[in-house]
Amino acid sequence: MTDQTISVISVDHPQAPPRSKDRGGLDVVKRMLGYRTEVPANDLAANLSEFLGTMGSIVDRLPTALGAFELKEMEIALEVSATGRVSLLGSGIDLSGKSGLTLTLKKRDASAAPAEE
Asked: What is the span of the domain harbouring residue 27?
């Protein structure tokens, strides 16, 4: 995976020029459509691994039961930046213009063998 890259389309571009004072033109169109950048696969893998490690320690602290209910599944929406940074999409984010990764975590059966890491 040394030289592999993954294309990321984002409204943020690492080399994007500063926003022009002119509110029209090509700059506005480019920002609406997004910029395509190539992110090194190793960088994205390292950032995703770090994020999941941190999220794993958070999920481990969640209660397994909530009254008569239990947590069986959890969905996490992530955004990948033009530089490969992985971030949790918080509330209030309009997902219509965003894309990224959606991870669905399913609670393991307690009797099942532990997953390999």
From this structure: 5-106
